[in-house]
């Protein structure tokens, strides 16, 4: 397989198309209500950038290079879909836009007491969200699990899906898109510090150890003349560097964030289970 190959995966493109359609629908609904404070063009641009980065990471030559030639390319793909894209998307969607994005049927399911609501309440606990992110990142970067995923397409897709899911969970604690106010700004920054510390540990292992992944160490074609050791060190730097950039941007975001004006509809608080939305069948959320 050529490392310059593109992979127009139908599932990835279909998911990206659906996400864009839902965003445009929510964005236009809010603007028609003259709520440009919650649906400004900067929000649209940020969401498109997030969607583009996540999609390109999975269909561009980054995917081909990471699958067969370079650990560093695969690591770049992982930080894009597991950190960068989820973080930017949640920043774009914070506030009412998030709830206008979700179909009414989904909002009803989440609002109704039951197992789904209980599961969301558990998953959105800070320790659970961050713990899930760290666990998934650890498991998929174990050499045995990593090489197995590379050799089995279904497992590889599961890997990507789990990275996206835990990325959304972890960054929901920092961005707080639903305005649950479970954590104070200092606590949210603490979550970011915990993620950075974890990346420093995992990335440090890649920097200081001999090549850990046979799939790359035994590859005869060396792109950009990178040896297996240099490639692994570059992968570690990608992970650490991305987290330090995210830490800086997170600090800026939390310092610059202002209290949003109250909206005309109630927002869910999964952690305390006090969501009381008003939803009528066939009508828009108010």
How would the blueprint of this fold be written?
Elements: H1 10-32, H2 41-59, H3 61-68, H4 71-93, H5 96-101, H6 104-111, H7 115-123, H8 126-140, H9 143-151, H10 153-175, H11 185-208, H12 214-217, H13 228-256
Helix pairs in contact: 1-2, 2-3, 2-4, 3-4, 4-10, 4-13, 8-10, 8-11, 9-10, 10-11, 11-13
Report on the architecture of this protein.
- The structure is a single chain.
- The chain is mainly alpha-helical.
- It has one domain (10-256).
- The chain contains 13 helices and no strands.
- The chain has helices at residues 10-32, 41-59, 61-68, 71-93, 96-101, 104-111, 115-123, 126-140, 143-151, 153-175, 185-208, 214-217, 228-256.
- Helix 1 runs antiparallel to helix 2 (41-59), helix 4 (71-93) packs parallel to helix 13 (228-256) and helix 9 crosses helix 10.
- The chain is globular.
- The N and C termini lie far apart (51 Å).
Report the mean per-residue pLDDT as an integer: 85
Structural class: mainly alpha
Radius of gyration: 20 Å
Strand content: under 5%
How many beta-strand runs? Answer: 0
Instruction: Work out the helicity level.
Output: 55-70%
The secondary-structure element order is HHHHHHHHHHHHH
Whole-Å distance between the termini? 51 Å
* Number of domain units: 1
Q: How is the main sheet built?
A: none
* Unreliable stretches covering 5 or more consecutive residues: 258-286
Label the overall shape. Answer: globular
What is the number of helical segments per DSSP (H or I, 4+ residues)? 13
Provide a brief overview of the structure.
70% of the residues lie in helices and 0% in strands.
